[in-house]
Amino acid sequence: MNYAAKIQTPMGNVLLASDGKNLIGLWFAGQKYYGDSMDSSIEYKDGLPVFIQTKKWLERYFAGEMPAASELPLAPAGSEFRKSVWTMLCHIPYGQTRTYGDIAAQVTMQRGKKTSARAVGGAVGHNPISIIIPCHRVMGANGSLTGYAGGIERKQQLLAAEGVDLTRVPDAHAAAWQKI
Fold it and tell me: Does the keyword Nucleus apply (predicted)?
């Protein structure tokens, strides 16, 4: 049985999901892969302790504090590869970014097996716990804002809220046209 709660954030409505003890999902309304890690038996239960903790975490985050992912019991469902990438995302400091290539190099070192930036991009894109597992902090090789399941505008807003200087970020659409 999975449990769910809907909450309002400064960036829109969010769906939280739990296995009863751990947070297994956090998606913006309309986000790609919305609710993917939940099974079909769902009970809405706003008062679940993990949902209360998550709401407080999000309130602190949106107030400009820097809460750590480790403050919450997280249990994202996915392959061992995806989980290793998501763990690395949790180590990207607030207000900083990394590229898919940076993370691929880390995964390669950790696993002893060559990993592509494209494979990392697939794992990042399927992150089921947005914001808390900070996939929004991952950029394209040229520093462009690419591939955020919650939408590029939200990615920009999250990075700006964390104080990331976006004045030097190339326009993702312009960069794509330049490659043609």
Answer: no
The predicted pLDDT at position 77 comes to: 93
Q: Are 4 and 53 in contact (CB under 8 A)?
A: no
Per-residue model confidence (pLDDT) at position 63: 95
Is 135 labeled as catalytic in the residue annotation? yes
Residue 98 structural domain: 80-167
β-strands 42-44, 2-9 pairing: parallel
Tell me how far apart the alpha carbons of residues 23 and 121 are, in angstroms, rounded to a whole number. Answer: 22
- What residues of the chain score a pLDDT lower than 50? 172-180
Residues forming a β-bridge with 122: none
Same domain, 107 and 132: yes
Catalytic-role residue among 48, 123, 131, 135: 135
